[in-house]
Every structure is written in structure tokens, then in C-alpha cells.
Design brief:
This protein is an alpha+beta fold. The chain has helices at 8-14, 61-79, 82-85, and strands at 4-6, 26-31, 35-42, 88-100, 108-120, 123-132, 135-148. The chain has a 7-stranded antiparallel sheet with strand order 1-2-3-5-6-7-4.
């Protein structure tokens, strides 16, 4: 397994997302174009938990899926030739088999273990599992495509 790790500043160089929508904080255990673990610090003052739900905050499941997508896009962008990725974006195409098993409560470290299942041209398929302290919180499969920036 690779010891490659990228920080938030490097992630910002790979993705168009910015605060507050840049959800992942670092990418670790990277095996280029194959797998990685994204780390997301879920904080109680994050925009997405302040009203979801008052007095019992929970991270919305749809944002776990968004974080999966960001992690996969960063893994892909990090692994392909820089000239090939220049002026490109990774767009989510579809989500399959999403399951939310346990609520993600703020003030935790969410680990998003992702794997590229296959690629065909500009279309990629991934799967992932979200965990807190080793406990499975959610999992999903999704597809994405690499498109030209306009």
C-alpha cells in the first residue's frame, strides 16, 4: 500500500470545489487510480449540520455521497497525467446502492474508503464505505465522467 498522502491545499489544486462545499480534508493511503481513504472532519459548526437537526445534529446522507464523489475525483485527478487533466472537471453521473447504516454525528473524523472499480474512456465507476472509528456508517457505488471545462 502506498504512503502517498495529499493535504487540503493539494486537493484544492485538483478540484474546483471551495469552502464551504469542499468537504474532504485530506487523502491518505493512495494507490494511484485504484484506491484511497479520504478524511473529512465533521464539525458541529459546519453549515450542513446547523439546521439538520437543531439539538440533534446529523450530517446529511446526500453530503456523504458528495464527499465520496469529491474523494473519487481527487483520486482520479491525482493519478492521471497532469496535461490530460488540465482544463477538465469530474462530474457525478449516477449513484447506486447507497445505504445509510448509522447517523454521522458532528465532531468526528469520517473516513471514506474508496475504490475505482473500472474505467472506460472518460467514464469511471467507484465504490466506497464511510466509517467512523471503524464502524460502517454508509456505503455506495457511483459513476463519474471527466468533461472539458468551459
Amino acid at each position: 500500500m502506498s504512503k502517498i498522502e495529499i493535504d487540503k491545499k493539494t486537493i484544492e489544486s485538483l478540484l474546483p470545489h471551495r469552502e464551504p462545499m469542499l468537504l474532504i480534508d485530506k487523502l491518505v493511503n493512495i494507490v494511484p487510480l485504484k484506491s484511497a481513504t479520504a478524511i473529512m472532519f465533521v464539525k458541529k459548526n459546519s453549515f450542513y449540520v446547523q439546521g439538520h437537526f437543531p439539538n440533534q445534529p446529523v450530517m446529511p446522507g446526500v453530503l456523504i455521497v458528495e464527499a465520496f464523489g469529491q474523494a473519487a475525483a481527487a483520486l482520479t485527478a491525482h493519478g492521471i497525467d497532469k496535461k490530460e487533466y488540465e482544463n477538465k472537471l469530474v462530474f457525478l453521473m449516477g449513484v447506486d446502492k447507497a445505504r445509510f447504516r448509522n447517523p454521522v454525528i458532528p465532531d468526528c473524523e469520517l473516513h471514506l474508503e474508496i475504490e475505482a472499480i473500472r474505467s472506460h474512456g472518460r467514464v469511471w465507476k467507484y465504490k466506497g464505505t464511510a466509517k467512523v472509528n471503524g464502524k460502517r456508517m454508509a456505503d455506495a457505488e457511483w459513476s463519474a465522467t471527466i468533461v472539458d471545462r468551459k
